[in-house]
Amino acid sequence: MNTNKLVVIEDDDIHYFILGKLLKDIGYTPDQIIRCSCIEDIYSVDLDDVYCVFSDLVLPDAKRGTTFSIISAHFEGKPIIVLTSSYGHEMAEETRKMGAKEYLLKGKISSEVLRKAINSAVGAFERGIAV
Question: Which domain covers residue 86, as residue numbers?
Fold first, then answer.
């Protein structure tokens, strides 16, 4: 069983539920998943507990286009995987240039894709390289 904690920054309950189920499928337990549904929530997370961060790019309390810079500044030193819909593909590519280790298209995520993304992002981050 994995003992690392993941932060999932997602305001949509359905997307969060689906991602949570997939994380459970690959061995994470509910107490290992910290949900934040807006930017304000991230400031209550104990950064020492965080292994990896998943973040939606559009949140209710952030101006469009600023979410990733806020998240990456707060979670500096942690690998970030961006969650986006198909129409956010270009924005997700931009976040890769800004330091996101991976991005996943909502609706196209499977357990295996999720496992590979976490391993790739964390591994690359630990080696100090972009993926």
Answer: 5-127
